[in-house]
Design goal:
Elements lengths: L6 H6 L7 E4 L3 E5 L7 E7 L14 H17 L6 E4 L15 E5 L9
Antiparallel strand pairs: 1-2, 2-3, 3-5, 4-5
The structure holds guanosine-5'-monophosphate.
Length: 115
């Protein structure tokens, strides 16, 4: 697997299965295989940006789209009492899949600070 060809690229290409909840030209969202909350959904760009630190000014609209997509999905999932959106950037933040993704976590009381 090349740096540009992660598990998530394979999910975009339907080469491995996922429980997909949303898709458009720029983004895909699917349920996390190892959920950390009753609702745990990943929102990813179709463009294979490895991590937030690799985003460039031309990704401006895409970044906004990912956040608004997260908001839309949270509404559709009924998370009106709150939810958390997380981006792990790099190994020290716990990033394990190097295709940018937003975690939407909800359905339980969250703690702060995060671990
Ligand atoms: P990270 O730790 O990089 O921020 O998050 C990666 C997330 O991807 C983890 O929460 C992990 O459970 C999830 N994940 C890893 N492999 C797969 C997979 O094949 N399918 C799905 N749906 N989620 C995955």
């Amino acid at each position: 697997m090349s740096e540009q060809d992660t598990l998530f690229s394979k999910i975009i290409r339907r080469e491995i299965p996922a429980d997909i909840v949303y898709e458009d030209d720029m983004a895909l969202a699917f349920r996390d295989i190892n959920p950390q909350a009753p609702i745990h959904i990943l929102v990813i760009p179709k463009k294979p940006i490895p991590k937030l630190a690799d985003a460039v000014p031309e990704d401006h609209a895409l970044m906004g789209h990912l956040l608004l997509t997260a908001k839309r999905i949270a509404e559709e999932e009924g998370l009106q009492n709150g939810y958390r959106v997380v981006i792990n950037n790099g190994p020290e933040a716990g990033q394990t899949v190097f295709h940018l993704h937003l975690h939407i976590l909800g359905g339980r009381q969250m703690q702060w600070p995060p671990g």
